């Protein structure tokens, strides 16, 4: 593997691992409430599961592409610019959006502040 491939992959891995998602929010909460040793157990297990998931998806996609070469055409079509409804649906089903919304409402409002 060349350095020209390792550097971009490392940057992607770093950005993916520090982006605010459900695991990072629970890890932050765990680190704030419990001793460092318990927080490290959580972070280590989350990291190992991510590596297993990464390898399974990589090998699975590879096997699909070898078995069904036309699957690459479907993937290319699926990766095109989404239309309005698709973007709407993606954001509505985005767990980060739900967590960020709930966290910001909980952090910046008091009981009874929001009225309809």
Automatic annotation (TrEMBL):
Keyword set, alphabetical order: Cell membrane, Membrane, Transmembrane, Transmembrane helix
Localization terms from the record: Cell membrane
Domain of life: Bacteria
GO biological process: cysteine export across plasma membrane
One cellular component term from this protein's GO annotations in UniProt: plasma membrane
GO molecular function: amino acid transmembrane transporter activity
Record flagged with keyword Transferase: no
Membrane topology term: Multi-pass membrane protein
InterPro entries documented for this protein: LeuE-type (IPR001123)
Transmembrane domains' residue ranges: 41-66
Coiled-coil features, chain-numbered ranges: none
Major localization class: membrane
Protein name: Uncharacterized protein
Species, as recorded: Psychrobacter halodurans
């Amino acid at each position: 593997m060349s350095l020209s491939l390792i550097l971009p992959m490392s940057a992607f891995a770093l950005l993916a691992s520090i982006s605010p998602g459900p695991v990072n929010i629970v890890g932050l909460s765990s680190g704030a409430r419990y001793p460092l040793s318990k927080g490290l157990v959580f972070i280590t297990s989350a990291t190992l599961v991510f590596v297993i998931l990464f390898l399974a998806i990589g090998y699975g996609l590879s096997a699909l592409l070898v078995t069904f070469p036309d699957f690459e055409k479907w993937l290319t079509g699926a990766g095109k610019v989404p239309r309005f409804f698709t973007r709407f649906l993606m954001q509505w089903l985005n767990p980060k959006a739900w967590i960020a919304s709930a966290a910001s409402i909980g952090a910046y409002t008091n009981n009874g502040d929001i009225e309809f």
